[in-house]
Structures are given as C-alpha cells and as structure tokens.
Write a structure and sequence with these properties.
single chain; 6 helices; 38% helix; Puta_zinc/iron-chelating_dom
Amino acid sequence: MISVKNESIETRLADAREEIAGVKKFPDSEFAGIIKELGFRCELCARCCTKEFNDHVFLLDADLAIIRQINPNVIAPAPYYEFCDQKGRFYVSGYALKTKPDGSCIFLDNKRCKIYESRPSICRVYPYMLHREADESGKVDWRQISGLNEHGSYHSELKDSECKAIARETRAYEEAYLRQMICFFEAVEVHFRKNDLKHVQKIYDRRMREFLKGGCELEVFVYCEGRFEKHNLKPEIN
C-alpha cells in the first residue's frame, strides 16, 4: 500500500468519464489488428498470477459475487486506497483477491488456477487491456497489452474471429471497470458533500506510515454493489 497521486474527486471523475468515452470510440478493427499482429499465446507459465507481474487482482462487482460464493474469506479491500478524509478514514473502489505470503494469487496451486472456470474478469482478458497509460518517457497513449515480450509467445497465427472476440471481451472489461470507478467517485463525492468531508493527502500519508509501522488500525470503506462496506484493518505483525 502506497500513497496515490493527490487529485480531487472531481478531477478523477472527469478523467474516468473521458477515459470510458475514449474506450468506446477506439476502433474495433484497430484493436483486433493489434491483437492479430502480436499473436500472443499463453504458455501456462503462471507468472501473471504472481507479484512478479501483478500485486493484486481487482474484482468487479460481478466477480465479487462469484468469489463470495466460492470462499468469502479470500477477499480484502483493494490496495492503493483512493481517498482519505480529515478523520483518517480511507475509501477504496472495490475488493481484491488475497495473496499468499510470497505474493502469488490465493488460488494459484502448482502453477495452475484452482478456480479457472470461475476466474475473475481481469484474469480472463489478461494480458490484453485498452486504456491510456504513460510510457517510460511520460507520453500518454493507448496501451493494449501488458508485459510485452516478458511472458508467453508471440507472432502466433490467430484467427480473425479469435482476435475480434478478444477485442470485444477486453473492451467489455475496461468499460465495466470504468463504470465501477465512475460510480465509486460519484458515491464518494455525495458522501463527502453530505458529511462535510474532504480528501486530505497529509493525513493519508501519515496514517499509512503509522499503519505500515504497526502503530495503528485503518478504517477502510470499500465500495461495492452501490454501497460502502466498512472494514477495520489491523497491521501485520512481523
């Protein structure tokens, strides 16, 4: 858990709305063409299920409902809380799967997923993505795949129908994720306005330092299914 960038709710809400509009406008043919050109094939290395590539698996509301049926004890508030009010209470946009002590997914067993048929949406589309992200030089542009040339094989022959299906599923995930974020920002905005609250970065940073040192508990409100769920998190004792 680290500090997130200090931006207002209004700014992040506007950015999310702009992002989802951009995702909807991105041409299907261009995205499918990129997928076909890359020709990515999974080699079942399971590296994407470890902290080497991903430090958490974010759950959409639809994923959360499935995971809670499988095992309600394997979820936790997603890391990188978006906001902290002046009373030291944190707010985060959803849940994530817990990880093992080594940082690998809680469902990873001998390099295989124990819930493969019911795996979360992000696991189904990874490593494909469709969002704007800054590169090493700081230039913000569309990014379509994660970990390029770092896992799997490339330049495989993919059918046009397969590429189109991947593009559709990835776009659907990105839109669902952004809709959840927009609803979260709107809910925080209303909650803060009604209760005369505001995001305070200094309190965010101080509370996080205290928590990571084992000096305090955190009160975290997790947004899911249109409401906030309260959690009291105790620091890990090493």
